[in-house]
Design a protein that fits this description.
It is built from 24 helices and five strands. It is globular and about 75 Å long. Helix 4 crosses helix 21, helix 6 packs parallel to helix 9 and helix 10 runs parallel beside helix 12. Strands 2-1-3-5-4 form a five-stranded mixed β-sheet. The chain folds into three domains: 245 residues, no CATH class; 78 residues; 107 residues, no CATH class. The protein is an alpha/beta fold. The chain is 67% helix and 6% strand.
Length: 546
């Protein structure tokens, strides 16, 4: 009888229900599914940001020159305005997996996925008796800004990860949670890596954390845990290594360019810009936490004035510091609030846990379920319209099965969050079918087929950067500001502006320029959707100037 009971217990733990019942198993699953759900959008350049071309261009040049320390623009001029971490992350991926779209996005996406589990782990240490660890992780995983930045090879996601390490280490020291030596190590490593990823923000957040820990009015700590000579030396080495190397190699021009970008170019000059910055950043912060913010009765229920809490005060300081930077920077972009997202998610998870709005939770869950069902139908229609492959149907099936599991196995407030991120993923799935294959895919395939080894791109740095990645670095891509001799890729609207138009050798790329739905359906039924795409498309030509 005893053995039978043990066997039943073990089998229950091996079932899907038993796995999901344990928060650790759910946390691992969410991290994996985050990667699976959003890996596809890196391939379609759905979240592509114009600044990404600077990093992929620089890394392909590093591979060609063998100089892994000095970033450059596509024309060969030095690019000192951003530190080295982002370049190195892409470089390592290229060295292991080769040059491709996926290997360009892999470092940031893989790190963002693993970081979700890190958030769960740290919140579990801070609040071991609470159930908010999985909730805080889910709030970050369902945040649209975090999702976007995870698929971009930009410094933003790295800054968020390393600064959040500083934030969690500060909270651990303040709340006396976990081993002090590990918290100190995490603080200094996070701060130094943040400096190596984005520069001065890493210094600012680390100093703010130290000042708060030593001087806050509620629960000050002694300075001794922070006085670790070993970790201070390690942090100074990591933080200064690239900057010192660039100074020794290229002189003060490297530091001048970096400081000019970090301070002079970024800081606003007028009162209007300051008000605009704080207004937009508050709007972004509110919008990116939907629908979570409706699941708590009030965002002021923690009674900060009457019962101050050290962790809440620190989190508010962290969010306030982020908003301050957004206020003084001009122009302000939504990604600038990313460092506040994990800490704000921790605060919001506490609010939901302590002051949950049952009506808000149920209404949110109902709306998301209805919207999710509609999005499934839209996605199936898009998959039929654009003749999606088997892999796309498999991805959609995984999402549906995942949602069925969470409906039956998770609390209602967690159901709505997971369904929200699934809804977001499915909507993006439909959109990616519309834009894929993009110009880089189509043109690269043509160049390989025609065995073209050198080609110029006329006044389109974005397409040139895509081609360097899509051709895996084996085709020489030159950026041109004038029509020269040789084979040249030119966009249709640029070609129409030319006073003397060379003969078009071939049309090598078609991308949808509009969405003529009625004509799309008619042509899809008749089997000639590609003919319609050629009519409603943004074209790229190949000309051969002799």
């Amino acid at each position: 009888m005893h053995c039978a009971s043990i066997k039943m217990y073990i089998m229950s733990k091996l079932t899907i229900a038993g796995f999901f019942a344990r928060n650790n198993g759910l946390a691992i699953t969410i991290s994996i599914l985050f990667f699976v759900f959003f890996a596809q959008y890196g391939l379609s350049y759905l979240f592509h940001h114009p600044d990404e071309i600077h990093y992929t261009n620089a890394v392909t040049t590093m591979l060609e020159s063998g100089d892994y320390m000095t970033p450059t623009y596509s024309d060969g001029s030095f690019r000192f305005i951003k530190p080295i971490i982002t370049y190195w992350s892409i470089l390592i991926s290229y060295l292991i997996f080769g040059i491709s779209e996926f290997s360009s996005k892999l470092p940031s996406l893989l790190s963002a996925s693993a970081f979700l589990y890190f958030i769960f782990w740290q919140v579990k240490i801070l609040y071991p008796k609470s159930k908010i660890a999985i909730l805080a992780m889910l709030i970050v995983a369902t945040n649209p800004l975090y999702i976007q930045c995870s698929s971009r090879n930009l410094p933003d996601i790295w800054l968020c990860i390393f600064l959040t390490m500083v934030g969690f280490a500060s909270l651990r020291l303040l709340m006396n949670k976990g081993k002090t030596s590990r918290s100190t190590a995490m603080f200094y490593i996070g701060a130094s890596m943040a400096v190596a990823a984005k520069g001065l923000p890493g210094v600012a957040y680390a100093l703010a954390g130290i000042v708060f820990m030593l001087l806050n009015p509620v629960n000050r700590i002694k300075i001794r845990p922070l006085l670790s000579p070993f970790w201070i030396i390690v942090a100074l080495f990591i933080a200064s290594f690239w900057y010192v190397t660039m100074y020794l190699k290229h002189g003060d021009m490297a530091l001048i360019a970096f400081v000019d970008d970090q301070v002079n170019v970024r800081v606003g000059n007028t009162l209007f810009e300051y008000f605009k910055g704080i207004g937009l950043s508050l709007l972004f912060l509110f919008a990116y936490f939907l629908p979570w913010i409706f699941q708590t009765k009030s965002v002021f229920k923690l009674k900060i004035k009457s019962h101050p809490s050290t962790d809440v005060l620190f989190i508010l300081l962290w969010i306030g510091l982020t908003l301050f930077f957004c206020m003084v920077v001009s122009p302000v972009y939504d990604r600038y609030i990313l460092p506040a997202i994990p800490m704000a998610a921790l605060l919001l998870s506490r609010l939901i846990d302590e002051h949950k709005s049952e009506k808000g939770v149920k209404r949110t869950a109902s709306v998301i379920k209805i919207t999710f069902g509609i999005s499934i139908l839209i996605s199936l229609f898009a998959m039929w319209l654009f003749s999606a492959g088997v892999l796309v149907y498999i991805i959609l099936l995984v999402m549906v099965i995942f949602n069925i599991l969470i409906i039956y196995k998770c609390p209602i407030y967690i159901q709505s969050s997971l369904q929200f991120v699934s809804l977001f993923a499915i909507m993006l799935l439909s959109l990616s079918l519309y834009i894929f294959p993009h110009q880089g895919n189509q043109i690269a395939e043509y160049l390989k087929k025609e065995d073209i080894t050198v080609v110029g791109v006329y006044r389109n740095a974005k397409v040139a950067a895509k081609l360097r990645v899509n051709t895996h670095g084996v085709i020489k891509i030159n950026e041109l500001d004038s029509i020269e001799s040789g084979k040249i890729i030119i966009r249709e609207r640029e070609y129409d502006k030319l006073a003397q138009q060379p003969a078009i050798a071939d049309t090598i790329s078609y991308s949808w320029k509009g969405f003529p739905l009625k004509e799309m359906i008619t042509n899809r039924v008749n089997g000639n959707l590609q003919d319609l795409k050629k009519e409603y498309s943004d074209k790229y030509y190949l000309i051969n100037r002799k």
